[in-house]
# Entry
Amino acid sequence: MVFKNKAFNKFWRFSSSFQLGIPIMVAIGVLIAWGTIVESNYDAATAKRIVYDSWMMWTTMILLVYNLTVVVIDRWPWQTKHYPFILVHAGIITLIGGGYVTSKFGLDGNMVVPIGSKNNVASIPVTDVVVYATFDGDRYSRMIDREVDFFTHPPAEDNPMILELGVEQIKITDHVPYALLDNKTRKSDDPNSGASIRFQLMNERVKQVEQITQAKKGKTASFNLGPAKIHLGEVPEQVMPANEIYLAPLNENELRYTVMHKSSHKPFKTGKIKIGDVVATGWMGLEFRLLDYLPLAKEEYDVIRKPRPTEQTTAAIKIEHRGATRWVALNDVVKLFGDTSAFLMSYQNRRIPLGFDLHLLDFNVKRYEGISKAMGYESQVQILDSNKQPLLTQTISMNEPLKYAGYTIYQASFQEDPVTREPTMSIFSINKDPGRAIKYIGSIILSLGIVWLFFQRRKRATAV
# Structure
């Protein structure tokens, strides 16, 4: 194709030449190699943020589509010999288009479901800052729901993100993408805060120290030892026979304890306990020692910065409110108080409603003989409609996903009790790929074009 305008004709020749095509292919190779290195040193989410979903990658893809389109148009009027060449280029363009649709409209997240419970939202890597406010301590209204990307645009002390809440203000002054959290329990001035205890369970074979902190005043917090449970809270009206201790705060120095046995509905022993006291539980020779007690307590984090992600790291932000600073971990909620109102603030992964409930009926794990490492695991799940009626029941294993309503649900991992090693939650990967059909069509077109090119070249070689 030739144009009368010399300048435009020169630009067109460059657009359809290897002078543009080869640098584009080199750039794609470099970006893919860079993404592979980033993913091996960090994780897939980091590689996507820095490389695969960056302006550099999409600019390169746009240039590639432009180059391929110009090359095809430049062959006009097309002849039969051009058709396989056109199919190959059309296939590549269709694949890129499918990738764009997936990136723009698809979903790639995860869902955590406790055994016997259900969930209907998927958590995705996009992060939001959400703030709710209450003026009566009961009804909360959403004041801020803002998408943030602190990974590429981190806040700083001299350049904070400011959240305006009427006469109140919250500043976000720091972000740590890979934070190791050291949980600290400190004394609280909030009269609605819960209590906290540090205790030791011991006998001839066991000596275990643990901490329990109530999320708020009156809300029971528990620790599961497997054959025994420790509860910080009041004894419920109906108690099943079990080896349990209930500890209810009485005053600043004492708690009331109630020891239960698995052989009876009635309390085995009751009394008062203060720091340093020891109570014989009557189960397996275990003794309970109260090491520390805070009638009003709050849990805060000390953050240790790590250069790379591990299984123990998470993202965290530093906030400032009324001159006080604290760290907020990803998907954690903090309560802040003003003169006439209270605020709930969360830095969280965005949650996408799926339109149905995933009910985890049971979870099974097979382990290698002699060790606790998992060899395989599977979840028996049920899909519930909006009226909580079961629609289907299926087992999801590592190689057998569940497909429903356009979503593919994979068995990703699970969580277990650190003491008993018994599974407590199943972790699913939720995927929705609206560009899959486009990518399949692109693959078919590309394959047909390659095969046609092969036979066309072979025919020419045979003719010679």
